[in-house]
Amino acid sequence: MSCLSRFPHLMNNPRAIFMRFSTSLRMQISVVLTLTLAVGGVAAGGWYKWDAKWERYMVAAFQSGISLFEVVEQYLNTPGMGVPSHDAGFDLSVVVPQQVTSADNSVKLRFSNLDGRTFETRFSFLDFRNPDVFEGNRIPIRVFSRKLTYSLGVIPGAENAGLSARFGYLVRTLTNYCGDTLMFVNIGEGRWLRIGGPKIWGCESAPKDWRLLILIFAGVSFGTFLTIGMSAVDRLDNLSNEIESRAKSGRITPIKQSNPKEILAISAAVNDYFDREKDRLEHRANLLSGISHDLGTPATRLKLRAALIDDPALRTKFEGDIDQITNMIESVLAYTRNEMNIEEQRRVSIHSLVQSVVDDYADIGLPVTLAPMEAETVDSTGTIFKSGSKRSKVNLSDQKRLLCFCRPNAIRRALCNLIDNAIKYGKSAHVTLSATSECIRVLVQDAGGSNVDFDFENMVEPFKRGDNAAHRKGIGLGLTIVSNIALSHGGKLAFESRTEGICATLTLPR
Length: 510
Hints:
Elements: H1 8-11, H2 14-23, H3 25-77, E1 91-95, E2 98-101, E3 107-110, E4 119-126, E5 138-145, H4 163-176, E6 182-188, E7 191-196, H5 198-201, H6 211-249, H7 261-306, H8 312-340, E8 346-349, H9 350-363, E9 368-370, E10 377-379, E11 393-395, E12 403-406, H10 408-426, E13 429-435, E14 439-446, H11 456-459, H12 478-488, E15 492-497, E16 502-509
Parallel strand pairs: 9-13
Antiparallel strand pairs: 1-7, 2-3, 4-5, 5-6, 6-7, 8-12, 10-11, 13-14, 14-16, 15-16
Helix pairs in contact: 2-3, 3-4, 3-6, 7-8, 8-12, 10-12
């Protein structure tokens, strides 16, 4: 049963068939498999049919050779015979070649009317089983061709068969190599039987060889079917890449939906999940943001009332606790803003962004520096004018325009958090930029030394702080925010302990 017989309502409506084919992956696979089998069957059947026809053609040539031997036998047994009783489909005539004496006194035969057939093959047939059939028992044969020479080695079975079979194999071989060939057989008394066989071994009489067209047809068909099949695989691959990119970047944006309907259903299901996840994250972020915002009002009132306390020591403690609460509120608000991904992404120059952040810190006298970028170079190749010259390095111009598709305010916040940590716990911050064709790395190196063994993986967890932060302000959300920002851009945050201090590396895709 074909794939279309299962849908009788489509068989009388070509447009419905096309629409279903273009929108259904199941239909595409069914049609492609059915057509592939059909084309394979047609190609195999055509090839087998040609082989059978060719074999029949070879058998007919073999029979013609046996009939030719009967004619030759008549001439050999009847000296001076003119016209044979039958010609077996060949053009026959008796000729007497000219004898030419060469410089070494050897006698050679020159046949006339060869019409450009310059390739000559000489051999003889011997009848070892019955040497008394002919006078002599050797039959000299000459074959003239326009293209090639022959040998007994290409005549299958000619060594062990009888004379009639040998003539059959000879004619079969000439037919297999088709061409405008002339054969001469010595029939005694200086006479030769001139044999032309355009109807037997001529290329025009051979069955038409459609094998090349069959191969081209099968190849084009299979290539078309493979393209259709691979296009469906490519659409699935593109869909998985889009889902993976959104999972890495944290951008919960709708996936573009396209046919076939199975991929359309997957895209719709994923988009529905993204919508629910976005609503859930927004609800959670709004809840945290609302709580943090509402806590800001009583914290401000506590700050004002603490100023009315007469005891300086108690007032200082109250104000310190209130400042800690305020910092917690601001950190939670920053965290929720990053969770909500409110800022739109755009293409910016990372070098300019980092330079502006470093300059802001330097303007207020903080020890923050930016290392100069190394010039990017590529290998130059030789030209036709300097093919032997050595390969050299070429500096790339505009090396500071490290463009990156990102949320610039989020990247600024992440960089500020890293610099603040470096200054707070390591006395200074040294920022370095590096780039490859795939990513940009922002390194922030502090000067705190390497005498503290940090659990770097634990530091990015919310509200986790190191042992060296016990007496410093903060609630443990700074690195969490940086890590979330990096992940939302498809990057990562990593740490390395060096001799001079801790180096934090923010990696962003280009």
